[in-house]
Each structure stands twice: as C-alpha cells, then as structure tokens.
Amino acid sequence: MFGLEKPAGRREPGGSGGFPKMASVGDFNVLSSSIPATKVELSVSCRNLLDRDTFSKSDPICVLYTQAIGNKEWREFGRTEVIDNTLNPDFVRKFIMDYFFEERENLRFDFYDVDSKSPNLSKHDFLGQMFCTLGEIVGSQGSRLEKSIVGIPGKKCGTVIVTAEELGCCRDSVLMQFCANKLDKKDFFGKSDPFLVFHRSNEDGSFTICHKTEVIKNTLNPVWQAFKISVRALCNGDYDRTIKVEVYDWDRDGSHDFIGEFTTSYRELSRGQSQFNVYEVINPKKKGKKKKYVNSGTVTLLSFLIETEVSFLDYIKGGTQINFTVAIDFTASNGNPSQPTSLHYMNPYQLNAYGMALKAVGEIIQDYDSDKMFPALGFGARLPPDGRVSHEFALNGNPQNPYCHGIDGVMEAYYRSLKSVQLYGPTNFAPVINHVARYAASVKDGSQYFVLLIITDGVISDMAQTKESIVNASKLPMSIIIVGVGPAEFDGKCSELDGDVVRISSRGKFAERDIVQFVPFRDYIDRSGNHVLSMARLAKDVLAEIPEQFLSYMRVRGIKPSPAPPPYTPPVHVLQTQI
C-alpha cells in the first residue's frame, strides 16, 4: 500500500541459511551496551474504531512512532497494512522492536482511515492515538495491554490491544563436548597440552572468537569438558555461518603452538555424534610443505544438546512482580536544604540532584510494578516532634503504610519530608537493606522480586553492618541499586559494595551472588550540576544488571517461570478484507 514490502521493523535475512540476522551478543565486550536484551514482536488490534466513511466502514491503518532520546521528537517506526471496511481490525503485519529492560521506550500508536493510495498521512482521516511505553506492554498481564484510543475531543475512539511476544529464534544454548585423537606432538620433553578455540565468521570474512576450552595437560588424545554456549554467540543465529575451530598446544609464556584447524557450522554440529562430526585437523603450512601430510590429528564431537534459555521476560509474563522500594539519604553531609549548595536544595524551578536521580530511575522501574505503589523510606534524619534519629522512616509520615502512588507520589513525599525533618546522621545503610530483606525473605517462590534504590551522598558510616546485610540479602530475591549524588569521591566505600570486580564478603562469608549496582550520578550531569545530559543513559546504566541478577537468583533456586496466561484470541469478523 505504502511501498512497504517487508514487515515493519524487520531486518533482511543474513547468511545462506535464510535465518534472520541477529545483533551480536557482545559476550566478550562489556561495553557493548547497545546490544538488545531481546527482540519483541508487537501485534496490534482495535475495537470499535470511529467510522469516518459515509457508505462503508473505515479502512484503518496503524502507524507506530518511537521517541528520540535527546530532542524527544517522535519518529515513525513502521506501519501495518490497511484493512478494508472494519472498525475491529486485527493487523497482520507486526512491529519487531529491540527491547531493553533498562531503557524507557516511549511509543505512540496513531490510527488513520485510509482514503487513497497516498503515503502522506495528512491526506487520510485521523482516528485517534494511544501513548504507552514498551515496558508497560511487556509488564502487563500476559504482556497484553488494552487502552482507550484518544485524540478526538468529544468522541469515543474505541480501544487498542497491543500484545508483545519475545522472538525466540536466538534463545537456544548448546551443551557440547569434544575429544581429539593423535594430535601432533609439540613439546620437546612431553606430549602436547591441547586446547580448542572457537571463532564465528563475520560478513567481511574475518572471525570473532567466541569460546576457548580448558587446557588438557600432556596428552595427544584429550577429552575436554562439556561446555555451554549461546547459539547467538556461536553463530549469531545463522545456522550455516562458518565456525572455525583452532587447536593449540598451550605454552606457559603464552606463545601457544598452532597444531591445526577445521571448519564446521551449527547445522553440521547439530547432527550430533556421527561420522559427519569427526574432523581432520589441518595445518596449512605443513600441508604445503610435506607431500605425504595427511592431517595433524582428528577432533570428534561427543555430544550436542540444545537448551532453550529462559529470559527475564518469561518470568514477567508468567506473573512475577517487581517490587520497588526507595530509600533517601537525609544526613547532614548533604548540606542545608535552604542553601543552593545543598544536594537537597529545595529549588522551586528545577529538580535537585536527589529529585533528578529519583525521577530518571523510578520512571523506568514503575512500568514493571503492577499496582504502582512504592514504599519510600528516609534515613539519617531527626524526626518531629521529639527529634529522635531514625535510619528507616516513612517519607509519607505513615510507618504502617509507607506506600506512595507512583514516582510522582514518591517525589511529593520526599519534598514534604524535607520541610519537616532535620538532616542529621550518621549514614547507615543496613537498616533500610534489612527492611527490604524482611519482605524478600517471606516470598522466595519466584512470584516476587524486590529492588531497593538507595540515593546517597556516599559517606557510609556502618560499612561492616552494610556488608553483612548485603551478604545475607544475596540469598534472597532482591537487588540493591546505589546512586551516589554530589561531588564526593565514591571510588572507595560505595564502589566496594558493588561486587562487579571483587565479590563482597563479611566475616569470612562471601555473597552468594552480586546484588549491588553502584552508579555515580555526576557522570551523567553537566558542569552546572543542573541538567542530566542523558536521562536514558543514566537509567540504562543503573538498571542494566537487574535482569541478570534476577535470573541468577531464579537459576540458583531452580525456579522456572510460570506459564503466561493464554494469548488473546480476537473474534472473527466476517466483513474483514485486506489489500
């Protein structure tokens, strides 16, 4: 209709096998933050659209827009087909989107009644629109969002149903085991110490390393341990893409001797143990020099087992709830809230550092919390009327019910608290961590997961107790995000809590898993300290570890996702036709 031959947002297939190209997984590059967590397919249906045609029903089309991060401009992402004569369309063409848990992706669905062949939307009748986020769709029950269409004053424009489904083509992992026979002897005093290196081919003919086996010492007939690798890492989802396997003899100084190589593909390997998966190891230099050269040994595939990986989305679809708690540092080291130098400065015209961090991160998380009710706590302040110091008080003043409605409710309670409490100290994290841990300890069946966001100036007083609390909490379904605001040097204490480099320990006990993510807020604001350069970048870096932390808890506990509710089946419309 509008020159769209391919489904909206879909990429060209790659490789000879006709499998879709996938983004590379970035297993070996921690900085490849633009790699999508997953791809989701959005299906759109409408009910009771406005009828703009005099003698027949509307001929609707849906146009999807996404919002640019920087200038907030709406950009067209794609269009469905046009369906003739229906007010209840179920569009066949899908929107396929990269889905990042850690980014807030704003979407706008516009609907038009198509009156001509013109691709110019202004030539068609506007039927209304719907705004939402991708997280809101995915986070809805069964990943099915139903919302009213708005945009034409005084008219009921009907409803839209958007369903998200994760594309499963690259969620497999494989468990493989190899052995070798009669490899070339490379060591003068002993046999070889062989290991395998796997590479996947790139379109430009280059190769990217994707796996190394362990070294087996002093043998020409090694049997390597079975290893697990994602299909995405191994061949980017293209089953016919060349996989090159090199065999080396390990040397202590790192100058490993090349024994030989062979090539295969995922499709060949998937045949499993058979005569097809015994490979001659060839050393091209030797082959060129020696006429009688046959090979440098053989490598045999012993086993090949496909496993489908469950994702963060599977649990969300199955009904797992993310419970978000906010804890704000009200200690005196933040400065007097009436002074512009304070991190808690109550500026009537713009958000302070705490407000900016709270809004950016909170808006992402709230899409995944079905009731949008967040417990909001403060610590390190003297409370009215008697001035007692508290390290765990409700921002709304109600300890029995510390819940605030949405992030706006949390912001309101925060600003109200600033007016009534006295900033004091010391900066104790353990009480708020233990507060959330008590809730997390009561629900360990995978139905709920708890995220504590601590916003602080980073001067921790109870380091030993905080470490102990984190080590204990690492056995529970919870994660802790610490956002450091202000100019303090966070390199010491706060960074120590983030277990990315060294796993945190207390009294000789190590944390079961890494549950803390620390982010210095100043990395994301301009020199004046008044503007976040990228709200999306901040939120992304703060939340990027949550899905893996979540999955690590579920894996250790052997908790599988619940089945999602049955998909929505639209009624059949007799009048529906398509062009």
TrEMBL record:
<dbReference type="Pfam" id="PF07002">
    <property type="entry name" value="Copine"/>
</dbReference>
<keyword id="KW-0106">Calcium</keyword>
<dbReference type="Pfam" id="PF00168">
    <property type="entry name" value="C2"/>
</dbReference>
<dbReference type="GO" id="GO:0005886">
    <property type="term" value="C:plasma membrane"/>
</dbReference>
<dbReference type="InterPro" id="IPR037768">
    <property type="entry name" value="C2B_Copine"/>
</dbReference>
<comment type="similarity">
    <text>Belongs to the copine family.</text>
</comment>
<comment type="function">
    <text>Probable calcium-dependent phospholipid-binding protein that may play a role in calcium-mediated intracellular processes.</text>
</comment>
<keyword id="KW-0479">Metal-binding</keyword>
<protein>
    <recommendedName>
        <fullName>Copine-8</fullName>
    </recommendedName>
</protein>
<feature type="domain" description="VWFA">
    <location>
        <begin position="323"/>
        <end position="550"/>
    </location>
</feature>
<dbReference type="InterPro" id="IPR045052">
    <property type="entry name" value="Copine"/>
</dbReference>
<dbReference type="InterPro" id="IPR010734">
    <property type="entry name" value="Copine_C"/>
</dbReference>
<dbReference type="GO" id="GO:0071277">
    <property type="term" value="P:cellular response to calcium ion"/>
</dbReference>
<dbReference type="GO" id="GO:0005544">
    <property type="term" value="F:calcium-dependent phospholipid binding"/>
</dbReference>
<dbReference type="GO" id="GO:0046872">
    <property type="term" value="F:metal ion binding"/>
</dbReference>
<dbReference type="InterPro" id="IPR036465">
    <property type="entry name" value="vWFA_dom_sf"/>
</dbReference>
<keyword id="KW-0597">Phosphoprotein</keyword>
<dbReference type="InterPro" id="IPR002035">
    <property type="entry name" value="VWF_A"/>
</dbReference>
<dbReference type="InterPro" id="IPR035892">
    <property type="entry name" value="C2_domain_sf"/>
</dbReference>
<feature type="domain" description="C2">
    <location>
        <begin position="156"/>
        <end position="279"/>
    </location>
</feature>
<keyword id="KW-0677">Repeat</keyword>
<dbReference type="InterPro" id="IPR000008">
    <property type="entry name" value="C2_dom"/>
</dbReference>
<feature type="domain" description="C2">
    <location>
        <begin position="20"/>
        <end position="147"/>
    </location>
</feature>
